[in-house]
Amino acid sequence: MKIKDIVNRGLVTLTNCDQEPIHIPGNIQPHGFLIGLTNDWIIDYCTENISSFLDLSHTQALGKKFETVFGGTAHNLVLNYTNSETVQDVFPLEVELMGRKFQINIHKSGDIYVLEAEPQFDKQILADVYTQTIQFVTQMNSTKSLKDLCALVAEGTREITGYDRVMIYRFDEQYNGEVYAESCRKDLEPFLGLHYPHTDIPVQARELYIRNQLRLITDINYQPVPIFTVDDKEDKNLDLSLSILRSTSPIHVQYLKNMGVGATLTISLIHHDRLWGLIACHHYSKKNISPGVRLAAKLQGQFITSQIDIRESNDENLNAKKTLQALEHLTALDLPLAEDSLDTLIQMPELLAVCNASGVSILFRNKMYKNGQVPEDNQIRSFTAQLGSKGYNEFYASRKIGEDLPELEGSSNFAGAVYHALGGSNHIIWYRPETVSEINWAGDPEKSIVKDDKGLHPRNSFNTWKQIVKGQSGIWKEYEINSAAKFAHSLHKNLIMILLSEEEEKYRLQSEVLKETNSELENINWISTHDLQEPLRKIQMITSKLLSEKRHDPEHPEIDSLERVSKSAAKMRELLQDILKYTRIKNTREAAEKIDLNLILDAAIEENSDLISECSAVIECQKLPQVNAIGFLMKQLFINIIQNSLKYASPERNPVIKITASQQPEIIKGRFKVYCSWVKFSDNGIGFDQKYADSIFKVFTRLHTQQEYSGSGIGLALCKKIMQALGGAISAEGKSGLGASITIYFPCDEQDTLI
């Protein structure tokens, strides 16, 4: 049987620092030993240092069954432990191997059971830890803020573990770390408030901190112990991501040596599945702690992560409450629906308090309203123009405007802004000025990893390195952004109401003017048309008298002129009568009643009986429906349509007028309305070109000369006005030389709608 080690000797190079395969080092720390078992319980992996703990070498163990090497009792204990529902990473298995007591942690790595054994610790220590933990829980309830809790955890963890320094390490969005709380020996220089660059803990290390939430280095100067395996596969390896004894990256070890650290304990703080921070314990000499103490320390981390949301909420609750009060005050305002109400609004302190801004501006109808520390008007317009060009048309919030809009970098009076569009070019913007801050780094963050002729190694200097940060404002909290959004939505609605109110007032005034004007026009039309008929009657009387006197002389030169004057006066009287009818038609829908169109048609035919006989016209008619209308108006409409067909009859054939109709209510969708009944008048007259289908309904519109066809040009316009007054519609279809059809549509009443 051939045996080989699996040490990853190419672990760190000049090019793979950020991708260092730290989960497969192939060796462990020497304060315990490791064996790997297959599903058949054959020892497939074993560390070289097993002989330091047992009278057994790794070569003697490899390839043999666990039961053969350690006995049936130990095998049954391990088997039961792996099959139980016990939280295995919390409570290690206590077992005797070859006469010596060990505490064994077991986890699965692929198809391999990994057993990590350490000599059993004194159980009295666990009792002391229990007492300290109870005291801590009592004290924890007296803290209110997250920072106070973290300080208490740092102190409590140091008491439980006995490390020289305990730090609560908190990450920002880019995983730069800050020492958020600390407890250390009085003779040590404090690290509280120092920042560490994200490169100190690379991506793959952060991923391992999430998977394996407790890491221990008992002696920074340890010599890694290789893991051996049966050489039966090429590139055989063992993933130690969940291992407690896993050997640490040489770069990290050197990093700790440069800090003067002798031993460490690191506990992950996981919040919402993200690495929120670490509990970093440093000791300046060798130090190992029992699994019970490790568990107690890990419990300290659980105290923090379980309280993050609550404590952060408590920390922000007071400010959030103030913004909520400001928002409620603003939204409860009963300001007049007028543009000048913005002059009052902009001066209200609650408008700044709604998101704790230093300034605010509102642009409405190209007028700028401002309060507090705000940019110049031209800067605001430039800012909004840049936002639009970058696609931020509705909403934008940033504490570093220069990052998104480099053109505005250096605008110290508004490094941060929250922008909301209010329709069109209108908007509201809250501002915060540049906040110059000083960050104390533990060494130059640009030199966390050094490459030189000696290779790759961490920095040697951890002297405080100060960085001045400009170009950013204070952070916009989520509750501030939400509060601003809610008010912007409310303001948008108010601005719409202002616009609607102004439009309503404008239309009301216009309506009053139109009403008055229409009333005056009606009076003028009635007076003028009525008064004009009297002189026309006199003209007709005088011309008639003169004609009667001159009839005895047919050749008299004045007879023709007098006849023309008489005809003109008659046409003028007819035109004035049509105008009077047209102007007197108003909105009469309220006076409409159910009428039988068959009776109306009979009356209209009777009215036109002489003309129908004279033209030898034939009228064919279906049964017509009952509709909501006004009888005398419908009679006038039918008369006009029939007269129109007879007037424009073809000289080549006798007139035929066919009248058809809907026999029951049906939905007819017009351009803007819905109709339920219709009546169509079709004739075989001279027709018209369809392009004139709309213009024939206009007042005084004629498609033929007065000499060809007589009339005032008001007949169809009168029909259209009647149908509009009833809430209906009228349309025309025609073909030159073939005839025309006029269709009238009646609006739905409640009964029709139900049908």
TrEMBL record:
Coiled coil: none
MF term (GO), any: photoreceptor activity
Pfam family, any one: HATPase_c
GO biological process, one term: regulation of DNA-templated transcription
Domain Phytochrome chromophore attachment site: 145-302
Keyword line: Chromophore, Kinase, Phosphoprotein, Photoreceptor protein, Receptor, Sensory transduction, Transferase
EC number: 2.7.13.3
SMART domains documented for this protein: HATPase_c (SM00387)
Reaction(s) the record says it catalyses: ATP + protein L-histidine = ADP + protein N-phospho-L-histidine
Family indicated by similarity: In the N-terminal section; belongs to the phytochrome family.
PANTHER family: PAC DOMAIN-CONTAINING PROTEIN (PTHR43304:SF1), PHYTOCHROME-LIKE PROTEIN CPH1 (PTHR43304)
Protein name: histidine kinase
Biological source species: Flavobacterium potami
Source lineage: Bacteria, Pseudomonadati, Bacteroidota, Flavobacteriia, Flavobacteriales
